[in-house]
Specification:
The complex is a heterotetramer, with 2 copies of chain A (99 residues) and 2 copies of chain B (287 residues). By secondary structure, chain A is mainly beta. Helix content of chain A is 11%, strand content 31%. Chain A is built from 1 helix and 8 strands. Chain A has one helix at 36-46; strands at residues 2-8, 20-24, 34-35, 56-57, 60-61, 65-69, 83-84, 89-94. In chain A, strands 2-1-8-6 form a 4-stranded mixed β-sheet, with no helix packed on it. Chain A has a two-stranded antiparallel sheet with strand order 3-7. Chain A has a two-stranded antiparallel sheet with strand order 4-5. By secondary structure, chain B is α/β, with parallel strands linked by helices. In chain B, strand 7 (227-232) and strand 8 (237-242) form a beta hairpin. The longest helix of chain B is centred in the last third of the chain and has 19 residues, at 200-218. The model of chain B is unreliable at 281-287 (pLDDT under 50). Classes of the chains: A mainly beta (99), B alpha/beta (287). Chains B and C meet through helix 1, helix 2, helix 4, helix 9 and helix 10 of B and helix 1, helix 2, helix 4, helix 9 and helix 10 of C. The complex binds zinc ion (2 copies). One zinc ion is lined by residues 174-175, 177-178, 246-247, 250, 252-253 of chain C.
């Protein structure tokens, strides 16, 4: 399944400072749908090059990270259970505090 | 004063003529603005343009809170301060600049750090709050104070080449704690003073904060509540995304929360976020 | 001067420290900025924030062109001008404000209308041009002059509750005439002075113009060339759309065009657009 | 066919000051595809309430109006011959000159 992942607010520093990643990822063996839970595990294994604790906590994202599926807060789409579809855009953004 | 019911003097009508000409703003919008009061917390990178535009547009009473002094390394982005004010309090400097563009509005100087001990008293005098601070504990504190007092909060942030903007606690929409119930790890909390910021990035976000505050104050348009603007200056890309609704579980605004003034005053925001409210000066060692 | 090759004095290193800390900007970006020169045509609603941020960020030489004088009804949006400067030339007022935030850069005052007779001479002294004017003939004239001299053009516009922004004639991208080969009917050409504008809308667009000029000058990021930003303040919506490529048929930059300096100087922009280059004063009759 | 039309830069004043219009429009009788040419004629008949010369000139838009199909300049999609698809977003925006 083709997805576009975007990292912002400093999270891109965890993946070689690359903000936009066009990826191909398939559901787990024996499972039909690709969920955010599986995608997070995939990202941690394949994209995060350093300090994974700055991206995840347990099996979800760390506090202060917003997750957006097609420009919509993942709290509205089902969080970890969100089912992803072909060409979806998933944004991970760390909230900023500077001024 | 005026006998036309809109509270606009002939001088104001001339000064604000380009607002009055606007069908979607007009006399009613300007009249609402002139009767409104807005508090800007922080006279730094975000506060600088926000304050100048709020003063210029004719907000009736404009409050400025900051305890900091103007330094040379602020001037690359804090365009409200001039070299002549280096060493002065940011509030005095910003207030002087606001008065010089509009002597007809009331400008209130709060030359002190915004703390749980003075927050309720200061904020209760204003209709709308603009968060232009630069650290995590202040953001939680300002949010909670807005929830306790029922004030809409225009929240902006900028760091590096990126900016973020939303309106919290407005018309049933989410508050900061609805989005971020648990503070981030301290290692994830960079400040402009530590990590740098391209000066014009808070400029863009601060202007947008002024715009959202003006929309709320003048009762026009759709404020950015339940939505967040994400700005990436380097690639010139902007996203406006849909946020979650108010959370019934929220410790500040949730159904069973009912945060009281007393609880707010006793809450230790530095301990909660494990971050200090004040910035320590930068040690730069580039050469 | 400096012996480190980047041309930054210790004073500059302190002043611009928050830029130098930025990995994507750093010493090289600041050094490029300090060596660059930018011309801002128009010291009004768009020019005000653009000029302040360009001065503050450390552009080496900043030129300001305008023939207008500061009026009270400018102050709701032209935050670079203060009440004390009402009746003064906008260029003098803006230059004084820029100097007060950054005395270390060179500020050049062009107190004259930008016309075909002086445009080439003025513009040839700068690397980048910011169009902050308010009328159709100026926009064609500035575009054509940029094409003749090969300068990138950061073009912004604001009216009512809306704003638009793009970069023309940059790196093979389209110019203004590629998009608009035929001028609009005069009935479609409203000015802020006729139709009104919410003051902070040119504030947002002017900041974004400064940002794009800074990106081009410091050679960072992706300038907004071949793309246009459309800003709707009332609904808080922003679109960034993809524009056509440079047109081979374009009368200014097309393959067989080769607009010469002589042709530019003889072109009658007022006749072409059927609009005057100067604004007549507003007659407001609200009461 | 369901389309979203947006008017901006003052063009909304020609359609009762409404900026966003969700419309249903079908191809001409006997034609399979819906083109921009047909949509423009449809807009002129059904949405433009006054001063049509401020919107159109001949069978195209007047000078100074940008047409965007799914956030892309219609010069890139085929101008009047652009074929529209279900749920496309078409923006008509008048260029601004103020400052
Ligand atoms: Zn809440
Ligand atoms: Zn061209």
């Amino acid at each position: 399944m083709q997805l576009t992942l975007e990292f912002g607010g400093g999270l891109e520093l965890l993946c070689d400072s690359v903000k936009i990643h066009k990826i191909n990822v398939d559901p787990e063996a024996g499972v039909e749908k690709l969920t955010m839970k599986h995608l997070l595990a995939w990202v941690r294994t394949n994209l995060i090059k350093e300090r994974p604790e700055m991206f995840m906590k347990g099996d979800s994202v760390r506090p202060g990270v917003l997750v957006l599926v097609n420009d919509c807060d993942w709290e509205l789409t089902g969080q970890l259970d969100t089912t992803l579809e072909e060409k979806d855009v998933v944004v991970f953004i760390s909230t900023l505090h500077g001024g | 004063d005026s006998s036309f019911g809109h509270g606009l003097s002939p001088n104001m009508i001339y000064r604000y003529s380009r607002h009055l000409l606007l069908p979607s703003f007009g006399v009613q919008g300007q009249s609402n603005l002139v009767k409104s009061s807005i508090l800007v917390v922080g006279a730094g990178g975000l506060g600088a343009p926000a304050l100048l535009y709020l003063a210029a547009c004719g907000v009736g009473r404009l409050g400025i809170v900051d305890h900091d002094i103007v330094e040379l390394n602020n001037l690359h982005r804090q365009i409200i301060h001039t070299e002549a004010y280096i060493g002065w309090s940011k509030v005095e400097s910003a207030a002087a600049a606001c008065r010089s563009v509009n002597s007809t509005i009331q400008i209130v100087e709060h030359k002190e750090a915004f703390r749980t001990s003075n927050a309720l008293e200061i904020m209760s005098k204003y209709d709308i709050v603009v968060d232009a601070t630069d650290n995590v504990p202040s953001r939680y504190m300002i949010n909670d104070c807005c929830v306790v007092l029922g004030k809409p909060l225009v929240s902006g942030a900028a760091l590096g080449m990126e900016g973020q903007l939303t309106v919290y606690n407005y018309n049933g929409g989410p508050c900061y704690r609805c989005l971020f119930p648990v503070p981030p790890p301290t290692t994830a909390c960079q400040r402009c003073s530590d990590s740098g910021v391209l000066g014009v990035v808070p400029g863009v976000i601060g202007c947008l904060q002024a715009l959202e505050a003006i929309k709320i104050a003048s009762v026009i348009g759709e404020p950015l509540s339940g939505r967040m603007l994400l700005f990436d200056a380097l690639s010139a890309r902007i996203r406006i995304v849909k946020l979650r609704e108010r959370s019934s579980q929220c410790k500040a605004c949730g159904e069973n929360a009912a945060l009281t003034q007393q609880q707010f005053q006793n809450f230790d925001y530095e301990k909660f976020t494990q971050s200090p409210l004040s910035t320590s000066p930068l040690k730069l060692n580039l050469l």
